[in-house]
Predict the 3D structure of the following.
Amino acid sequence: MRAWRALIVLIGLLVIWQAVVWLTGAQDWVLPGPTAVASAWIESRQLILGHAVWTATEILAGLVCGSLLGGASALSMAYFRPARRWLLPVLVISQAVPVFALAPILVLWLGYGLASKVAMATLIIYFPVTSAFYDGLRRTELGWLDLARTMNAGRWATLWHVRLPGALPALASGLRVAAAVAPIGAVVGEWVGSSAGLGYLMLHANARMQADVMFAALVTLAALAITLFFTVDALLRQALPWQPESAPAND
Amino acid sequence: MGVRTPQPPLSVSLHSGRVVFGGEALFEDLDMTLVGGRWTCLLGPSGVGKSTLLRLVLGLETGVGNDGETGNGGLVTCSDGGEISGRAAYMAQRDLLFPWLSVIENVTLGSRLRGERDGRGHLREQALSLLEGVGIAANAEDRPDTLSGGMRQRAALARTLVEDRPVVLMDEPFSGLDAITRLRLQNLAARLLKGRTVLLVTHDPLEALRLGHRIHVLAGRPARLDIPLEPEGAPPREVDDPALLKLQGVLLKRLAEAAR
């Protein structure tokens, strides 16, 4: 049923797209129709897929780095009081500075290659992961803490066996947001300066007025992002089978 | 249940218990004694501070303002001169089972939290036999969310028993259950906790009369303990025991007084 719905939505969007092309009589170099984009995709599929692999690598590396960094930050803020005092402002500042404004600096420092894009994706997901996880760590069920206390659990054991597992559902929602925004970081990084990736390909095609290739790259990017999100979502569900679904079945 | 040295019953006393909540004293200069090897039951109107009193004995936080400034606290002593810390187990109204652990892992939680190793599987064996005792051995590997409320509370009881502590403090442990399940669990608890010093906070007079050796009503502000009722016969007493039903009338009157 879910697959059918997705298919119907997809077909509906394609029909609207084609209708807009017909109704406005848009030129091919302004808005190519779905068929034109499809043929462009087939024609240059090797080029597009090559760049897609590059972008996917950036996104995944950023996702891993950002999650590890965010997870470690949240844990140390939960455990060490000084870390809370010093890291929390950093966390807020990391959000107050628009990350996109940092992209040129990152490219300047880290070069045109993979590193600057990974750094970009890492930066953009650091906040959602850290804040969601830290929130979860702070909101441990009080009864569990009482129980751990009467069982003479130390601070570390309480964090490791009670607060950490209890915060995993919160971390999972942080990771879902991360999976959704990580591609933005990577592509913005590519736009500022790169020699490969779907963002690079789009700029390149744009400069040559190859609108069909640009759209083909865009569609590929969207497919990549959606696949990433649903894969992460499925993995998290698998990993936390005990997490209660709060939405009622008839909602 | 394995080799266990029987522990002598331990009496616990609270002296000058004091808790201030929102500028008002819940209780002040309150003394309470839990007689060794006996069940002490604590009844009273809601909000009078029954749970707070239990938490005070247990050394848990007693609410906002527990920062030393207000002087919340009290002196808790044991009959052998030792401390209560590490010798009291806690059971709450909610089962407090960790949803990510299986039933048996939940039951052996204490040793995991203290970093104790279960070298030869003794602990597991003991936990399994306790699960057998509370009647849910078949569910040992299940996740808590697959169990009914009664079974979950049985698991919580097994977790309390695995801790094997001379003092057990229970805060309305059976109040979320239906009447029949509640009676069964009361019988089970009376049997399995025999010989331990128990404080049971409850709002069910019948439960107190079935299980308690001494039954206090906590009332007033600041709250005071009355002279306890001491029903005859060994717990768990039968629900249709005429003496018990007569005492229920007395107790209900005391509770009605207290709620005024």
